[in-house]
TrEMBL record:
Membrane topology: Peripheral membrane protein
Domain SRP54-type proteins GTP-binding residue range list: 341-354
Record Pfam families: SRP54, SRP54_N
Organism of derivation: Cucumis sativus (Cucumber)
Protein name stated in the entry: SRP54-type proteins GTP-binding domain-containing protein
SMART domains, per the entry: AAA (SM00382), SRP54 (SM00962), SRP54_N (SM00963)
Broad class of where this protein is predominantly found: membrane
Single GO cellular component term: membrane
GO molecular function: GTP binding; GTPase activity; signal recognition particle binding
Keywords: GTP-binding, Membrane, Nucleotide-binding, Receptor
Any one GO biological process: SRP-dependent cotranslational protein targeting to membrane
Subcellular localization, as worded in the UniProt entry: Membrane
Similarity field: Belongs to the GTP-binding SRP family.
């Protein structure tokens, strides 16, 4: 093992000496550092391919969490259950009526008109060509169509964290979509896989926003950097946090940001400033800019996602609140329309309710 990594190991085995953060740094910096319980993480420093391994572990976890995915999508599944009834009594003479109703069921679940027509037309062609001869074959073809779409257009579902530490993940989106909650849940997951996480309270608009993130830091045992004074610039909080992440041997810095309407020009500009500030500290960062989209808004999320993508370049999506929504089809529409992969889905408010997105598990969950 290289000398550098050995020294990191010894640092990590004596985690978080308080003197590293306070009070000596206080006078020179406007930021306050709050300690979570830094004593529980496993050491990961100096391992080649750590981020690749992390991505893979999360993926494997997605497969083993199928139960959770299934319960999260129960309302979508109820909505789509009508397809089973339709196909149970399907016969060739009734193909048009059955496909019309199937089309309706997909639209109600927010598959979106474009993708719905594509799927139904493809099924019709295969039925007329004699390739699909029973209800169950049609159902399998339907699942296959959806899966191919998800895999073709949104295949990079695992986190791409590069190779330089710390990796930086920015969470962005409109107000109330679930950014802070998703960040907390993501921290929990990554920390459980052995990563050393630093949170950055980049939502400087509301005092309550950093309090909310501090609660997540406590809950997950992560450290956090918050602005010490009011009206601090989000970009400087993020910049300080990433510097701290670098100095402190953190694996990943998770940056929260304020909710903003995609139509608000100056707030979108601020997001660009945040991105630049982070890149100034670590070239190539942020590694991921994840946009949180509220699943209950259905297809209204599409213009939001387009605008954020145009302004800062979205690398992945987190679709939240799919537990409360019967509109799980929006996952498919978003991938089809934007070609941006869904990386996580939020299926509840608890710590474990952020699931890495696995296309197979998703398709099984909604069409079971
Ligand atoms: N049911 C459910 N609720 C969620 C999910 N994700 C977030 N929420 C809830 O949605 C509400 C808003 O979540 P926040 O994390 O504060 O959203 P935000 O995007 O950070 O909001 P702003 O910072 O105000 O823009 C909270 O009540 C969360 O508990 C989810 O996957 N399922
Ligand atoms: Mg928030």
């Amino acid at each position: 093992m290289a000398a550098a990594s050995l020294s990191q190991l010894s640092f990590l085995s004596n985690p978080s000496p308080r003197s590293l953060f306070v009070p000596s740094l206080r006078p020179t910096t406007p930021f306050r550092r709050i300690h979570g319980d830094g004593s529980r993480f496993r050491c990961s420093a100096g391992q080649t391919g750590f981020f690749t391994r992390l991505g893979r572990l999360l993926k494997e976890k997605a497969k083993s969490d199928v139960e959770k995915v299934f319960s999260g999508f129960s309302k979508t599944r109820d909505n789509l259950a009508v397809i089973d009834e339709l196909l149970l009594y399907w016969n060739l003479a009734e193909t048009d009526r059955v496909l019309d109703e199937l089309e309706e069921a997909l639209l109600v679940s927010d598959f979106g008109p474009r993708i719905t027509i594509k799927i139904v037309d493809s099924l019709r062609d295969d039925i007329l060509a004699g390739k699909l001869k029973s209800g169950s074959e049609i159902k399998e073809a339907l699942k296959k169509n959806v899966l191919e779409l998800l895999k073709g257009k949104g295949s990079k579902t695992d986190l791409q964290l590069g190779f330089r530490k710390p990796a930086v993940i920015m969470i962005v989106g409109v107000n109330g979509g679930g950014k802070t909650t998703s960040l907390g849940k993501l921290a929990f997951r990554l920390k459980n896989e052995g990563a050393k996480i630093l949170m950055a309270a980049g939502d400087t608009f509301r005092a309550a926003a950093s309090d909310q993130l501090e609660i997540w830091a406590d809950r997950t045992g992560c450290e956090i950097v918050v602005a010490e004074k009011e009206n601090a610039k989000a970009s400087s909080v993020l910049s300080q946090a990433v510097k701290r992440g670098k100095e402190g041997g953190f694996d990943i810095v998770l940056c929260d940001t304020s909710g903003r309407l995609h139509t608000n020009y100056s707030l979108m500009e601020e997001l660009i400033a945040c991105k630049k500030a982070v890149a100034k500290v670590i070239p190539g960062a942020p590694n991921e800019i994840l946009q949180v989209l509220d699943g209950t808004t259905g297809l209204n999320m599409l213009p939001q996602a387009r605008e954020f993508n145009d302004v800062v370049g979205i690398t992945g999506l987190i679709l939240t609140k799919l537990d409360g929504s019967a509109r799980g089809g929006c996952v498919v529409s978003v991938v089809d329309e934007l070609g941006i992969p869904v990386k996580f889905v939020g299926v509840g408010e608890g710590l474990e309710d952020l699931q890495p997105f696995d296309p197979e598990a998703f398709v099984d969950a909604i069409f079971s």
